[in-house]
Amino acid sequence: MTKMQLIDTHVHINFDIFQADLEAVRSRWQQEGVVRLVHSCVDLSEFSSIQAIASRFAEVSFAVGLHPLDADKWGNDTAKQLKSLACSDSKVVAIGETGLDFYKANNYFQQLVAFEAQLAIAAELSLPVIIHCRDAATQVREVLQKWKNLKGESVRGVMHCWGGTPEETNWFVDLGFYISFSGTVTFKSAKQIQESAAMVRSDRLLIETDCPFLAPVPKRGEKRNEPAYVRYVAEQVARLRGETLLSIASLTTQNACELFGLAL
Fold first, then answer.
1. Cis peptide before 68 (omega within 30 of 0)
2. Residue 46: predicted pLDDT
3. Residue 155 near residue 120 (C-beta atoms within 8 A)
4. Measuring CA to CA, which residue among 45, 41, 17 is closest to residue 213?
């Protein structure tokens, strides 16, 4: 029998909420077949704590970037510092998370400056970019389309914790991006996310937890999400697409390896 392998493409396990029992958390993700994790980064100050986890656990790779809600921290030296950090460790496999968020902030220009600078670094280093997009699909599309028109090629990357409509999903797939679904795809009210998960192209499909946030059904009542729960995301995506859990696990694992250059 084929052993199921899962990859959680977006975690934040450096947060304090995991500090007391991270070894037990790891045991649970291993029991569920999670063989690789990509640790995202919201602020450059996190780099050392994330790097320490990646050094401790062989299956963890990571990104470096500045979240759009922290775009006010972007300064004259930030790009240089970010690039230096990205080049400092071979386990850095992406830039991000970056992007645009107009749900919680309206500082469009600040966010745009930080986003475009991080796209440039990702392109220069031939790394994929992890994009956070909330109430900003049109604007993110415009930035990526402009980049493609100017440079003649798309930046590679993933729309993480995707919450868009099927039409918006197609925008980003057409730009060459992967679409990653989180625990929100299990929520009863998340109809447009479920529609997107059902129709997205197979070679662009990814799964994640975005832990410690957004615990999936049936764990939604818990205060902390964790990587082991990516299985529930995979199960729901399989149901929505009329496929088996094993086939979705295999597909999303292959896609994650291709995007992030991961080896199993």
1. no
2. 97
3. no
4. 17
